[in-house]
Design brief:
By secondary structure, the protein is mostly helical. It is 54% helix and 7% strand. It has a domain at 141-188. The protein has helices at residues 22-26, 30-78, 100-140, 171-176, and strands spanning 149-151, 162-167, 179-183. It has a three-stranded antiparallel sheet. 5% of the residues are buried.
Length: 188
Protein backbone atom coordinates (compact mmCIF):
# COMPACT_ATOMS: atom_id res chain seq x y z
CA UNK A 1 0.00 0.00 0.00
CA UNK A 2 1.41 3.41 -0.94
CA UNK A 3 0.38 6.74 0.58
CA UNK A 4 0.59 9.42 -2.12
CA UNK A 5 1.52 12.50 -0.08
CA UNK A 6 4.51 13.29 2.09
CA UNK A 7 4.04 16.26 4.40
CA UNK A 8 7.67 16.34 5.50
CA UNK A 9 9.31 16.55 2.08
CA UNK A 10 9.30 19.31 -0.53
CA UNK A 11 8.70 22.99 -0.02
CA UNK A 12 6.24 24.17 2.63
CA UNK A 13 2.71 24.51 1.28
CA UNK A 14 3.51 22.35 -1.76
CA UNK A 15 2.19 18.86 -2.27
CA UNK A 16 4.78 16.39 -3.47
CA UNK A 17 4.37 13.15 -5.32
CA UNK A 18 6.79 11.20 -3.12
CA UNK A 19 5.16 7.91 -2.17
CA UNK A 20 5.43 6.45 1.30
CA UNK A 21 6.12 2.80 1.38
CA UNK A 22 3.88 0.41 3.22
CA UNK A 23 6.73 -0.28 5.66
CA UNK A 24 6.97 3.41 6.66
CA UNK A 25 3.21 3.65 7.19
CA UNK A 26 3.10 0.39 9.20
CA UNK A 27 5.69 1.77 11.61
CA UNK A 28 3.26 4.50 12.67
CA UNK A 29 0.67 4.21 15.37
CA UNK A 30 -2.96 4.43 14.31
CA UNK A 31 -3.36 7.93 15.82
CA UNK A 32 -0.29 9.08 13.85
CA UNK A 33 -1.78 7.66 10.66
CA UNK A 34 -5.06 9.49 11.31
CA UNK A 35 -3.15 12.71 11.96
CA UNK A 36 -1.11 12.11 8.84
CA UNK A 37 -4.26 11.55 6.76
CA UNK A 38 -5.94 14.64 8.25
CA UNK A 39 -2.89 16.84 7.53
CA UNK A 40 -2.76 15.60 3.95
CA UNK A 41 -6.49 16.07 3.48
CA UNK A 42 -6.25 19.64 4.85
CA UNK A 43 -3.39 20.41 2.47
CA UNK A 44 -5.25 19.02 -0.53
CA UNK A 45 -8.47 20.76 0.50
CA UNK A 46 -6.76 24.12 1.15
CA UNK A 47 -4.92 23.88 -2.17
CA UNK A 48 -8.19 23.34 -4.05
CA UNK A 49 -9.96 26.00 -2.00
CA UNK A 50 -7.28 28.58 -2.81
CA UNK A 51 -7.48 27.79 -6.51
CA UNK A 52 -11.28 27.89 -6.45
CA UNK A 53 -11.27 31.18 -4.52
CA UNK A 54 -8.76 32.69 -6.93
CA UNK A 55 -10.92 31.64 -9.90
CA UNK A 56 -14.05 33.02 -8.23
CA UNK A 57 -12.26 36.27 -7.39
CA UNK A 58 -11.03 36.62 -11.01
CA UNK A 59 -14.52 35.97 -12.34
CA UNK A 60 -16.09 38.49 -9.97
CA UNK A 61 -13.47 41.12 -10.82
CA UNK A 62 -14.14 40.59 -14.54
CA UNK A 63 -17.89 40.96 -13.96
CA UNK A 64 -17.39 44.13 -11.89
CA UNK A 65 -15.11 45.55 -14.57
CA UNK A 66 -17.67 44.85 -17.32
CA UNK A 67 -20.48 46.43 -15.28
CA UNK A 68 -18.38 49.51 -14.50
CA UNK A 69 -17.56 49.98 -18.21
CA UNK A 70 -21.22 49.61 -19.15
CA UNK A 71 -22.33 52.05 -16.44
CA UNK A 72 -19.72 54.64 -17.38
CA UNK A 73 -20.74 54.33 -21.05
CA UNK A 74 -24.40 54.91 -20.18
CA UNK A 75 -23.59 57.89 -17.97
CA UNK A 76 -21.26 59.44 -20.57
CA UNK A 77 -23.80 58.99 -23.37
CA UNK A 78 -26.68 60.56 -21.43
CA UNK A 79 -24.77 63.13 -19.39
CA UNK A 80 -25.98 65.33 -17.57
CA UNK A 81 -29.39 63.66 -17.35
CA UNK A 82 -28.16 60.57 -15.47
CA UNK A 83 -26.08 61.08 -12.36
CA UNK A 84 -22.76 59.22 -12.20
CA UNK A 85 -22.93 59.01 -8.39
CA UNK A 86 -24.37 56.09 -6.47
CA UNK A 87 -26.26 57.47 -3.48
CA UNK A 88 -26.27 54.23 -1.45
CA UNK A 89 -22.61 53.35 -1.89
CA UNK A 90 -21.00 51.18 0.77
CA UNK A 91 -17.81 52.67 2.17
CA UNK A 92 -15.05 50.08 2.47
CA UNK A 93 -12.74 52.22 4.63
CA UNK A 94 -9.71 52.70 2.43
CA UNK A 95 -7.79 50.57 0.00
CA UNK A 96 -7.75 46.87 0.75
CA UNK A 97 -8.43 43.49 -0.80
CA UNK A 98 -12.17 42.80 -0.84
CA UNK A 99 -13.51 39.48 0.35
CA UNK A 100 -15.59 37.29 -1.92
CA UNK A 101 -18.76 38.42 -0.15
CA UNK A 102 -17.86 42.09 -0.60
CA UNK A 103 -17.05 41.51 -4.28
CA UNK A 104 -20.42 39.80 -4.75
CA UNK A 105 -22.25 42.69 -3.04
CA UNK A 106 -20.32 45.17 -5.20
CA UNK A 107 -21.23 43.23 -8.36
CA UNK A 108 -24.90 43.04 -7.33
CA UNK A 109 -25.02 46.77 -6.54
CA UNK A 110 -23.41 47.60 -9.88
CA UNK A 111 -25.83 45.32 -11.74
CA UNK A 112 -28.74 47.09 -10.04
CA UNK A 113 -27.24 50.51 -10.82
CA UNK A 114 -26.72 49.55 -14.49
CA UNK A 115 -30.34 48.39 -14.80
CA UNK A 116 -31.55 51.65 -13.19
CA UNK A 117 -29.32 53.70 -15.52
CA UNK A 118 -30.65 51.78 -18.53
CA UNK A 119 -34.22 52.49 -17.42
CA UNK A 120 -33.40 56.20 -16.96
CA UNK A 121 -31.70 56.31 -20.39
CA UNK A 122 -34.72 54.64 -22.01
CA UNK A 123 -37.08 57.13 -20.33
CA UNK A 124 -34.88 60.01 -21.46
CA UNK A 125 -34.77 58.75 -25.05
CA UNK A 126 -38.57 58.38 -25.06
CA UNK A 127 -38.96 61.97 -23.74
CA UNK A 128 -36.63 63.32 -26.42
CA UNK A 129 -38.46 61.37 -29.13
CA UNK A 130 -41.86 62.69 -27.95
CA UNK A 131 -40.47 66.23 -27.71
CA UNK A 132 -39.07 66.13 -31.27
CA UNK A 133 -42.42 64.85 -32.56
CA UNK A 134 -44.23 67.64 -30.68
CA UNK A 135 -41.88 70.29 -32.11
CA UNK A 136 -42.49 68.96 -35.63
CA UNK A 137 -46.28 69.14 -35.10
CA UNK A 138 -45.95 72.64 -33.58
CA UNK A 139 -44.09 73.84 -36.68
CA UNK A 140 -46.66 72.28 -39.03
CA UNK A 141 -49.78 73.58 -37.23
CA UNK A 142 -48.89 76.34 -34.76
CA UNK A 143 -52.57 77.35 -34.34
CA UNK A 144 -53.36 74.05 -32.62
CA UNK A 145 -50.58 74.53 -30.03
CA UNK A 146 -51.22 78.07 -28.80
CA UNK A 147 -48.75 79.19 -26.09
CA UNK A 148 -47.11 75.74 -25.82
CA UNK A 149 -43.53 75.92 -24.57
CA UNK A 150 -40.95 73.23 -25.23
CA UNK A 151 -37.52 73.51 -23.56
CA UNK A 152 -34.52 72.78 -25.79
CA UNK A 153 -33.14 70.51 -23.06
CA UNK A 154 -36.13 68.17 -23.62
CA UNK A 155 -34.96 67.74 -27.21
CA UNK A 156 -31.56 66.53 -26.03
CA UNK A 157 -29.81 69.69 -27.16
CA UNK A 158 -27.58 71.85 -25.03
CA UNK A 159 -28.46 75.36 -23.99
CA UNK A 160 -31.38 76.87 -22.19
CA UNK A 161 -33.62 78.06 -25.02
CA UNK A 162 -37.33 77.37 -25.31
CA UNK A 163 -39.46 76.75 -28.39
CA UNK A 164 -42.76 78.57 -27.99
CA UNK A 165 -45.88 79.10 -30.08
CA UNK A 166 -46.75 82.85 -30.00
CA UNK A 167 -49.10 85.08 -31.88
CA UNK A 168 -47.47 87.02 -34.72
CA UNK A 169 -47.84 90.78 -34.16
CA UNK A 170 -49.06 90.35 -30.59
CA UNK A 171 -52.76 90.98 -29.89
CA UNK A 172 -53.59 91.60 -33.53
CA UNK A 173 -52.06 88.27 -34.56
CA UNK A 174 -53.87 86.48 -31.74
CA UNK A 175 -57.24 87.90 -32.88
CA UNK A 176 -56.46 87.19 -36.54
CA UNK A 177 -55.22 83.63 -35.82
CA UNK A 178 -51.64 84.28 -36.92
CA UNK A 179 -49.44 81.95 -34.87
CA UNK A 180 -45.74 81.22 -35.16
CA UNK A 181 -43.14 78.99 -33.50
CA UNK A 182 -40.19 80.90 -32.12
CA UNK A 183 -37.02 79.88 -30.34
CA UNK A 184 -36.27 82.12 -27.39
CA UNK A 185 -32.86 83.74 -27.14
CA UNK A 186 -31.85 81.30 -24.46
CA UNK A 187 -30.17 81.96 -21.14
CA UNK A 188 -31.15 84.97 -19.05
Amino acid sequence: MDVPLDPGRGRPGELTSVLWSEREVQGMAQSQQLTFDRVNADRVFSRHTEADERAARDTLRAQVSKLERELSGLVARTFPHISPHDSDREAFGGPRLLTLGELERLRDRLALRVSEARAQADEREALERRSRALLKRMKLEPGRYKFVRLPVADLGEGGCGVWEVRPRLGLIGMLAGWWQVKLSSGCP
